[in-house]
Description:
The chain is α/β, with parallel strands linked by helices. The chain is built from nine helices and eight strands.
Amino acid sequence: MVVKGVDLRQERIVTTIGRHIEPELDSIPRVTADGAPGIVLGSELAARIGARVGDKVGLVSMVGAPTAAMGFTPKIRSFRVVALFTSGLYTYDSSFGFTALESAQDFFGFGDAVTGLEVKIKDMFAAVRVADEILKPLGRPDLRANNWIELNRNLFTWMKLEKVVMFVILTLIVLVAAFNIVSTLFMVVLEKRRDIGVLKALGATDSAVLRIFLWKAS
Length: 218
């Protein structure tokens, strides 16, 4: 799973995750009644491991793990499930968990540091441009910027492919329908050549005859 340490009050300003948490929380508790830090799990992830609100889960990480004689020893800590969230996107609901910023810093051994900052912009489709504008003044090649378009690249690739396929399908449907209409009019004209000659003899113009057939086709 992906564990994010967040300040839930600040997170609500940037993302909508706070609106999808049940039960509602003002903040993720750094310490619960039994001393374990609190954690919010995605509903699909919780269902997969059989966890419910109030249960205790163990997190295992190699980040910040101490070195032993046989190598690195995984860091293990118990967290108390204080809420679940359901975003509606399976990728997030099945692999994400949120805990308090201080709890994550302590568990992963980051001290007072953070691994990322989230920014909300007015024009969501300008995310790629804004990401570049944020990085350029910093002059730090070791820093990188992600955006929602790149993080959901697979989804957008599938949507683009679907758009192309639907365009081809609709174009074929229109062409078949147009061919049927044209062929029907052509056959009717051939069958009504004698009647057309009578109309022309009576003074009907070409446009008038054309309107008659188009009206019949519609």
